[in-house]
Design a protein that fits this description.
Layout lengths: L16 H10 L3 H9 L12 H10 L4 E6 L2 H15 L6 E2 L4 H6 L2 H15 L3 E6 L1 H6 L3 H10 L11 E2 L8 H17 L12 E4 L6 H14 L3 E3 L24 H6 L5 E4 L6 H10 L3 E4 L5 H16 L5 H21 L3 E5 L2 H13 L3 E7 L4 H12 L8 E4 L3 H10 L4 E4 L4 H7 L3 E3 L17 H23 L10
Parallel strand pairs: 1-2, 1-3, 3-4, 5-6, 5-7, 7-8, 9-10, 9-12, 10-11, 12-13
């Protein structure tokens, strides 16, 4: 080890090579796994992010909306950089840069100055305010702060300024998404309900989904049906806008007028029930029309459920184009099933993603052998167990609630699987276990364009089948003996 001057630095502790090798082998053992699973006060590499990050994603889903972090600048940089690296697109947001004085005296002055600057510099149609840890710990009152900001003229009286309390030390990004989405809809729809009015539209809530391709696929499917839709928190263009030489700080997003009028919709459907429970509960009490909650449509069965429900809600026949898509997806699964059949997978991620992964794998005759959720619930565990119990391929598969990726590493090292499905953070365990990782979750930092392809619907089935099976075929070609290097697989 050397410093910048090129001088040798003596190590405080010298670790013998044999000790390094011993520990390296020990952490792959059953003995270590037992100790790893016994820990209670320590979390190592959880498969989730914090609340404010999800809140920022929700804010980006609305037209002309500037996400505003009430908290420290360093926290805001983390949320922005995580979204930047996943989408490889700008994630414009501002912060009121609270520091030590704000922690002592409160952050109202920071918030007021920040709001006034944001309005003057960035000219948003709406500012969505959410918190980081510092203002939550000291108990800042956002209701009073924002009311005072209007009174003092820091923001126009007619500008929507929804806000959400999103402490990073509690919950995950899906809880922050839910809180921010709820606040935005409450703010925009206030006083907009008209007795007897019906927009004729479907309000669609995709949940805390970080794949822009999914949003486009939802809209395409509904276009095939001829069903008008308002996607609530539409990030399709926010994080996948064209490169045309001009930067648009507010690319895409659900038009605010459409979001406000969504309270008069014909029906509202959430396809991310674990990500939006508070929002959907409020919608059931306040929105006109019918209200439907379905699992994320991954795999054939869950896509069928969504398609049939849309047909039922709007009294339409399923279009022939979608029937043909279903047939092609089933054909793609049939052509490729032998490359996935019987293979074991470790899956991890958000609750809605997990339900989709497990359902899809079981349809392919694969085993979702280790199922890990960092922040799960009894309800989720029961639903996942029901999927496993309903298939012969679920036998022997286990669910691990409120466990992290270091737990997952122990699992794949002591009870091996053929592959993993999840976000980029699992690559270290996958490398140690010498198995492929299929990056279908959030965040994905180390691959490009992954968010542009749908995971939902029949097209999502074809994409996932192709990605997984072709990787297994790549491995076969790369590792087989010359005499088994065949042209046909």
């Amino acid at each position: 080890m050397a410093n910048l001057l090129g001088l040798e630095v003596k190590k405080i502790v010298e670790t013998p090579p044999e000790e390094i090798e011993r520990v390296k082998n020990w952490i792959n053992s059953e003995e270590y796994k037992e100790q790893n699973f016994a820990r209670q006060a320590l979390v190592i590499n959880p498969a989730h992010a914090c609340q404010p990050l999800g809140a920022q994603l929700a804010a980006h889903g609305f037209e002309g909306t500037l996400p505003f972090v009430h908290g420290s600048q360093g926290c805001a940089s983390y949320y922005r950089s995580t979204l930047n690296r996943h989408f490889r697109e700008p994630a414009p947001a501002v912060s009121d840069a609270m520091t030590e004085d704000g922690a002592v005296f409160g952050g109202q002055n920071n918030l007021h100055e920040g709001l006034e600057n944001a309005v003057a510099l960035y000219k948003p149609k709406m500012i969505a305010v959410f918190t980081s840890c510092m203002p939550e710990v000291i108990g800042d009152d956002l209701t009073a702060f924002i009311k005072n900001a209007r009174t003092k003229g820091h923001v126009p009286k007619d500008m929507p300024v929804p806000f959400a309390n999103t402490p990073s030390f509690n919950g995950t990004h899906i809880h922050g998404y839910d809180s921010m989405l709820l606040s935005i809809l409450q703010n925009l729809t206030e006083g907009k309900q008209v007795e007897g009015r019906c927009t004729g539209k479907l309000n669609l809530i995709a949940g805390c989904d970080f794949n822009t391709g999914d949003y486009r696929e939802y809209k395409r499917i509904l276009k095939e049906f001829g069903v008008p839709v308002t996607v609530l928190a539409d990030i399709a263009d926010s994080f996948d806008s064209p490169c045309n030489g001009t930067y648009n700080i507010y690319a895409g997003g659900t038009p605010l007028e459409d979001a406000a009028d969504s309270i008069n919709g014909k029906a509202t459907m959430t396809l991310g029930p674990y990500a939006t429970p508070k929002t959907f509960s409020w919608i059931k009490d306040n929105y006109a029309g019918k209200h439907v909650s379905l699992p994320m449509p991954m795999g054939i069965e869950k896509t069928d459920a969504m398609i049939m429900k849309i047909a039922e809600l709007f009294g339409k026949e399923v279009p022939e184009t979608l029937k043909n898509e279903r047939g092609r997806a089933v054909d793609a699964m049939t052509d490729a099933q032998q490359y996935m059949h019987g293979k074991k997978f470790a899956v991890y991620g958000d609750p809605d993603y997990l339900v989709g992964y497990v359902s899809f794998l079981l349809e392919m005759g694969a085993h979702p052998y280790h199922i890990v959720c960092s922040r799960g619930s009894k309800k989720l565990e029961k639903e996942l167990q029901g999927l496993l119990d309903g298939s012969m391929y679920g036998k022997g598969c286990k669910i691990y609630m409120n466990k992290d990726l270091w737990h997952l590493r122990s699992l794949v090292m002591t009870d091996p699987v053929d592959a993993m499905i999840g976000d980029s953070h699992g690559k270290f365990a996958a490398r140690d276990a010498n198995i492929p990782l299929f990056r279908f979750g959030f965040p994905v930092f180390d691959r490009v364009n992954m968010h542009r392809y749908p995971r939902i619907g029949y097209q999502g089935v074809i994409y996932m089948v192709s990605q997984i099976c072709n990787k297994f075929l790549d491995i076969k070609d790369e590792t087989c003996e010359d005499r088994f290097f065949e042209l046909m697989r």
